[in-house]
């Protein structure tokens, strides 16, 4: 850990830099000059040296997709390896902020610099906005040594990149880090094919909550679209309709043809332990692997990073069961 001397601010869009248009708020360029103008009149402006790069295109984060994660990853790696930046602050919209923090946690494994993400619930310049507080608070984090890896800063809190979720749609303290119920074996040292230098490609992933009335036909239709990985949000400790043989057969057939099947809990503080109930054991027997206490964002980002690296489903499952950066 060391003090930051050459920070990159990567502006991806989001509410923090939005301006009013005839259709409503939309991402706008020129945020660097707005930042510098604001800091010029502040008595206690952050002192860290920074430069700003705008991602093209700028996004409302509701439009965030896997290729945008890869573009962010490429921009961050280039900034560190080619332009000698020793830290990166990502400005991002809040709708998918936790998803991007989790995805980048796995896409940047082994990158030896701190990566921090922040955003705001109201645009900079709007009356009563939280934008400048979050931005200045995030910049001040770099006044002190930070550990390498991805973290999220919001409403005065520094959160683990793979444990954060957006819990509130309007409050300024929209994000919280969910507790870990148990820890898995940690991977050290990290193999090269899981690190930040490993090329990634897009992966066809799907998320489905278990609910009373879920049918095999629902999953058949979804899996028939070429899904490579399915994240099933189960009840409680990892249970589901285990007396529905057709549904179990659908899951088993998908796993046999190479689809990765992962189970997490629908409960915000849930943890999948298949052996607690017979209903969970039958899901495991159908081919599901446990996501432990991982959040939806972390589980999805981890599946993307593993399958996107070209791992087959057996190898992806082996690495999924291990702790790569504190996600489990």
TrEMBL record:
Signal peptide: none annotated. GO terms for biological process: amino acid metabolic process. Pfam families: Asparaginase (PF00710), Asparaginase_C (PF17763). This is Asparaginase. Belongs to the asparaginase 1 family. Residues 206-320 form the Asparaginase/glutaminase C-terminal domain. The active site is at residues 15, 94. Residues 7-178 form the L-asparaginase N-terminal domain. InterPro entries: Asp/glu_Ase-like_sf (IPR036152), Asparaginase/glutaminase-like (IPR006034), Asparaginase/glutaminase_AS1 (IPR020827), Asparaginase/glutaminase_AS2 (IPR027475), Asparaginase_C (IPR040919), L-asparaginase_C (IPR027473), L-asparaginase_I (IPR041725), L-asparaginase_N (IPR027474). GO terms for cellular component: cytosol. GO terms for molecular function: asparaginase activity. Substrate binds at residues 61, 94-95.
